Structures are given as structure tokens and as C-alpha cells.
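FYI - complex with beta-D-ribofuranose, inputs then prediction.
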Amino acid sequence: MAQPIIIDTDPGQDDAVALLLALASADELNILGITTVAGNVPLDLTTRNALMMVELADRPSVAVYQGCDRPMVRPLVTAEFVHGKTGIDGAELPNPAIEPAATHAVEFIVDAARATPGITLCTLGPLTNIGTALSRAPEIADGIEEIVLMGGGFFEGGNTTPAAEFNIYDDPQAADIVFRSGIRLVMMPLDVTHQALTSDARVEAFHHLGNRAGAATAGMLEFYERYDRERYGTVGAPLHDPTVIAYLLEPGLFGGRECYVEIETTSELTMGMTVVDWWKLTPNEPNCLVINQLDDDGFYALLTERIGRLP
Ligand code: BDR
Ligand code: CA
């Protein structure tokens, strides 16, 4: 039976590719809804971009719910310098004809968690919608199977400050609520996503698919690569967010360790840092499976094959 999931996202080219991977995998994943949050770009654009992916995948029955337009406490930080003005520069797609659902994302998440015990939340952006839902209705934690999240970094450090990764830095208070919630967590930090690098050959493979989704993916990645190539001197860019969906589809591609993880919410210097007790130096019980290994060829093979199934 297909696994019931909600995808919470701030597209972003890598979010967009993650959405396409999930939308192409209906046999395994029952997407109850896509919820949007402000992050890489403001909320009106992340919502527009999510709708564009639903349309590109020809899955109009998957509803998109608009969520929070700013973090719970701190001001919104966006990342146009990585993703371009629209968030998905390079996609070259028309504006979507479909509209978001009328219900707010937080209300949808609370209702869905109550109605469907055993759902998995897949989070690809700042954790604002989830943190807000858990503050309003803490009892929903009991019915959530797990949260698989892209965020944080430990041995790799940060990508927004020396200490913090973008999704956690953007809303550390929301992340703190999630990490203290008692829900089973699986974390895809920079330590693993920096192994999921694009390359000319991998992008070319999307071009070769010959479908619209393949062309849009290749176009987005060609734009997205330039920032990481310049900053890190790598052959390509890390496809952070698709690792979350790939983990649900093929967990055997990944390896990690159960650890206790805490979020820095006080010091400005290290705000949003994910402090991982990798070596079990404290008596704290693990609250998170921290992933740090990836079969990158297997990951790209899965991604390319699934995006090839789309129109
Ligand atoms: C995360 O931040 C965003 O820029 C990406 O979409 C990803 O979710 C990586 O730090
Ligand atoms: Ca994202």
C-alpha cells in the first residue's frame, strides 16, 4: 500500500526536483498534500513553484496548501542568490493554471495528522509550518509515523553561517520544537547531501529523457549549479531535498547513526546549529537517525528513471 505523506517545501530548484520524484512515484507514495512555506523565496513564489511542478507532472488532484509566510520568531531570510529571482530559475515553464487550496497549510497538517494515523512528513524547507502545527495541536505528534527532513550539518558545518544550514537557520525555534517533539526523525544534513552532486553527465541524462519534466529538471540544475561550483569548487551542486524522497523510496541507498540532536536557539554566533551527539558523549537518548552515507550513483539512477516516467 502506498505510504501516506505530506511534503512541506519552499521550492527552490532542489525542492522542485524532489516534488517531481515524489509525483512520479504514485505506487509507493500517497501524497495527501503539498504544503508551502516561505524560505528560498517568499511564500507567493514557493506556492507558485509547487503548483508548477504539480502541473508539469500532470497530477492536478494533488492539492497545494499555502502555509506560513515568515518564521515563528525571527525575520525571514531568503536565498535568491542561490536559486534566482523566481526560486526555480532555469525551469522555463508557464505560470500555473491551477490554484492553491483554500485551507491554510497548518490547518491541513493538523487535520490530516488526526484523520490519518501513520503519516510521514517530508520537510524540504524551514520547519515553520510543522513547528506551528505542533504548537497548536501537540497531540498530533502521537499519530505521526516519522518526519524525514532535509536540514542541518555537523562534520560539514553550515552553508548559511559557518555553523548553520539554511533550513534550520531560517527558523531555529520551529526546528527546536520538531527536535523535542518525540516524533521519530530522520535527518538529511549537508554531510550526506554534499555527496549528491550533479555533474555534466548527470544533467545530460535528464536532457536525454526527451520529456518536459526532464528538460525542466536539466534547465533548473544548469542554473542551480553555478552557485555551488563557485563557492565550493565542486563539479556540480548538491541535490539536497530529493534525498528525503529517495530515502522513502530506497532506504538502502543511505546509511547513518541514531544520535541525540539539539538545536541552537540562543547564541547569535551559532544560531540554528544542529548539535549532534555523534560520539554519545551525553546521557541523552537518541532522537534522530542522522544520515551521512549515500550511494550517489544509485540515487541519480533512481531520480533519472522516475523523472523519465513523467510527461
Ligand atoms: C536547503 O536550503 C535550500 O536552499 C535548499 O532548498 C535546501 O532545502 C539546503 O541548505
Ligand atoms: Ca528546500
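The first helix runs from residue 13 to 23. The first strand starts at residue 3 and ends at 9.
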